[in-house]
Each structure stands twice: as C-alpha cells, then as structure tokens.
Amino acid sequence: MLLPLLLVQLAGLHPLGGKAGTAVEVNILGSDLESATGVEFDCADLVWKHTIRREAGQLSGVVSIASGAALGGHMLRVLTAKGPSTSLLFNVGQFPGMVESDKRVVPALPVEIYGRLDGAADIDQYWFTAKAGERWMFEFLAMEHGSAVEARMLVLNSKGERIAYNDDRDHFDENPLIEHTFAEDGVYAVKLDQYRGPRGFTFGKNNAYVLRISSLPRLVSASPLGARRGTSVRFVLEGSALHRVEKMYLTELRAAEYSRMTYPYTMPIRFRADPAQVARIDSDAAGSFTIPRDAATGLWRLWIAGPDGVVAGPKIEIDDADAINGVLSQPHKRDVHHFEGRAGEPIHFSTLSAQLGGPYLDTVLTLRDESGQKLAENDDVVAGWGGLLGNPDSSLFYTPKQNGPLLVEVRDRLNRGGTAYPYRLKVDHARPSFQLFTTPENPVARLGAAAELKVHLVREAGFEGEVEVWVEGGPRAKFRADQRFEPNADGADMLIPEITIHIPAPAAAGTHPLRIFGQAGDGAAVEAHTATMIGPIYQGDWNFYRRPVPAITLTVIE
User: What is 10-93's CATH topology?
Assistant: First the structure.
C-alpha cells in the first residue's frame, strides 16, 4: 500500500533567536503542530523548557539558551506524533535583546532587535539616541539566517531626513548594512522597508529578522582563504575599526553555518552531525595561527573579538592540498598560474571565494596553451540567481590532447579588484560528474505503507550521460541523458531532473537510515545527500537557506 508522506512543515518563527544566557518565548509557525511533543536543537546548549500554546498552525514555548552557546545559527525541528518536522534556523546573539512591539524606542545601545515584516505594507521604524562622534553599525539579518525577508534600510534624523541608506551589503549578501559615524547629538531612527519588486513579492509567514546595532568592527574579508595542516598562517583582514581587534580564532564549521550551500557545490561539505564539542584553534599573540596536523579537514570559520564583542568572518578551508591562495589586489588584475598538462589526463580547476563568504569577487577562469590560444573558459559553477543556484565561483574541466604547459588565468568578471578580492584556486584530475540530493529532508510514513522519496540530479558542466539510481537493498530507477539541469526562463530558479522512488514499507516503527547511490556507465558510484531546504522544489517559495543534514532517514510511525 502506498500512502503520501506525512510531512510536518515549518513556515517560520518569531523571534528569530535570542541572547546567549537568556530564556526567550518563541512562536513557531507551520502545519500539523497540534500533536507536538517538544522541540529538538542541534546542540545541548539550547533547550525547549516548556510549551505555552499548541495548535495546528503554531507552537509557542520557552527556549533556554546557555551562556556558552555558539553564536550564530542553530537548527531546530519540532517533534510530533506524526514524526519530526522540517527544520528552521534559530540565531544566538550576544547583545541585549528587544522584541518588536508597539513601543519603538530603543532604550540603550548596543542591542539586537527581533522583529518581523508582516504583509507587503509593513514598515518598521525604531528610534534611538546617538552622540556626536559615535560610530554605530546597523546590521539587518534575515536571508541566510532562516528568514525569507529582503529589505532596505535607512537612517533618519529627527526631521525624518535620510542620512544613510543601504539595500545589499555586498555583491552577494542581500542583507543591508549601514556603518555610520554621527556628526551631532540627537535622536535618530532606523527604518526597515521590505523589497517591493515587480512581482509584488511577499514573504508569507517566514518574515522575521534581527536588527543588530553595535560598535563591532566590520570584517569585510580575509586572506588567505585556506591553509594546509601542519603549517602557520597569518590572515590579512579588510574592514573598518579593526584596531579594536584583540584576538582571533578559528572554529570548525557547524552544519547550521553553511550559508552559501548551492548545487552543484564545489566547497567541501561535511554531511555528518556536529561534534558535541566544536573544535577551536586560537591565534598567538602576534595574530598567527599554527594549524595542527590532526585538525579536521574541511571548512572552518574565522572569528575576531575585542571589547565591543565578537564578529564572524569568512569560511576558511583547511586541508592537505596544494591549493593556490591569491588576491586580485587591483582593478584589471589577472593572475596567471602555470601547470603541466598531459595528453588524455583530465584536469579540473575550480575557485572558492563567494562560497566562503567573499563579498565581491565573481571569478572567471580562462585556460590557454603556451602560445596564448584559449582552450576553455568558465564563469560560474552554475549560472542564474537564487538560493539553490547562482554560484559565482568557477569550475573548469579540460582534457589535454597533448603534453605541454597550461596557463590558467583568474580574473574578476567585471575587472574589479582590491584587497577584498581573495580567491582559492584548486586543481584535481576529476572528470565532469554529477551530484544527487533528496527531498523532503526527513520523510515520514505510516507503518505498513510504502513511502515516496524524490531524488534530484545535478549535472556538472560537461556531464551528459544517463544515471542509474538505487536505494541500498531496494528499488532502482534511471535518469535519461536528455534530462537537463539548467536555469529556467527567468534565471531565478532551476530546472532540476527528479525521480520518485517507492521505498518498500519498513517492518517496524522508528527511524530507518537510507543510503541512495547513482552511477553513470562504469564510473564510480556517487552517494546522495539531503539538506534542509526552503524552496521551489516542494514548497512553492524561493530558496533562502540550505544546510547539510547528517543522513537520509525515513521515520515510520504507527
């Protein structure tokens, strides 16, 4: 017997987080929440203390946040009699919190304001006092922090006149940021107005935000973007108020921190549960890091700290590869790197910059022979724009026809440059292949009923073949060669091939791990993964955050 999946979907929450060391009341919106039994988080530092209200469309309760909880995003999901829900992000902050209410006067700075923009007409405005010479940074946190809201931000004087404005803080991050030093004492306002584009887009129930007002340093970028294990590295920082930095450290990236996870991904991703204790590497007194030989390979996050608080920096790759770290330090700069090609041996060049948090660089890779003739070129891992696609780093596959030197040129698509344009060039011998992911992130089925699971095929540039997919110990299916992975007509979404696999009914209730593989011809098998996802694949909204899930599982309930 085949029955539809019992998918308990979460639509949003408010407030979007809370300060470390406090307890906050949270309202979670979604469907089928009347049988909720609790909420689970990705670590022991966040605890659902008790439930206040429980009904079909919402669940309210109190979350206790330990004083030592990791700053930033954390995953949560609701546990119900129908199985676990889909996931949401809950953000841990460091400053006193203020929840949006009819009172819009900010009593003191710094502060983190937890608000929401309800409906297309909603505009939020908060009043505060500043003195001449004070520097305050206004950060709007929503997209990639678990919310769908896109907004613009203005700072007004007491007459309502605009003195500062921002829409997107950089080329890839659509959360606005304003850094302003006030010229005179006075009462000012920060105004938040949501995006009002030609589609008349609204953000539904996933409309919460955090407005952080602080005197933190601003960390725009850091270089290099990677380091080898067993070596020492010193990071060059780009930003403002960096003289306030007292220490730096690296932490192993948690699953909730993979903020620019697109398909196909070329950055290293760990599909596993976070460790109970997140690893940390501190810099020495001179600001240099010694990377332990036994440090976990993959992505880490750079943090800077001082008397004003802690700032999250870009992601840093730690591995054993001979990757090249560079900076396009001035406009029109083109870095050329030399390699030796061998006839018939595939070579794959890829860059990491935007995926690691780089603010501006949109790399283009051009491959030439020793005479300067162009052999191949790539602009983006995948073209288009949106949360599932729009990866502006580059990935170029090439198989030389003869032995000889190869010249790889790295440039910015718009010929920009500066100290905030770092990149990491990686080289391997891979051929074009594919990736597989499944939806929904956590399927639930009734005991005795077969379940449906969708498998999605992501083709790397140059891969054209059929792909056979199968569940370990279960059914098989096949993607045709003509099923394409490409942007749709408006460039804001993807056409993604999918296959529905029917999983035989498990014999017992509980959580059952699934392993799903794909293979093209006589090539190596590729394992499928899954991720948290808000997007057009199965919910009808745009994609704004995606985080890796440790394993594909099927929950069976009686």
Answer: Immunoglobulin-like (2.60.40)
